[in-house]
Design goal:
single chain; OB fold (Dihydrolipoamide Acetyltransferase, E2P)
């Protein structure tokens, strides 16, 4: 479930969203909520725009990507860490919803060509 949509910059190259996960479990004759986990999901460029236009707070989502843990120390000397997902794919969950895919039409002008994947790099495998 999307907990909040944030960090959608005006230049539209990055979308960060918080993903709340929690598995329900059957216990003593009834369903109970599992322990929740929160993950920051990072997406860039066109994918970031598509996420911002397609999903909103409270929507169930499916995320495929790589887990990454970052650690740092605050100026006060406290050690902190966060686990994030660098998203390869983000989609609405179809368990209790219907989605009708629509090709995103984006203008490809010279000013923003670099952020639009107009490099001559080979296609990722």
């Amino acid at each position: 479930m999307i907990r909040k949509r944030s960090d959608y910059w005006q230049v539209k190259v990055y979308a960060g969203l918080d993903l709340l996960t929690g598995k329900e479990r059957y216990e003593y004759g009834s369903w109970r909520d599992g322990e929740p986990s929160f993950f920051r999901v990072n997406a860039w460029r066109d994918q970031a725009e598509n996420i911002a236009e397609s999903l909103s707070k409270g929507n169930r989502a499916v995320v495929l990507g790589r887990l990454r843990t970052r650690s740092w120390e605050t100026p006060e000397g406290e050690k902190r860490s966060v686990t994030e997902i660098d998203a390869d794919e983000v989609a609405p969950s179809l368990r209790w919803a219907i989605a009708k895919p629509e090709r995103a039409e984006r203008s490809r002008n010279g000013e923003r060509g670099a952020e639009r994947g107009q490099f001559n790099d080979p296609t990722p495998s």
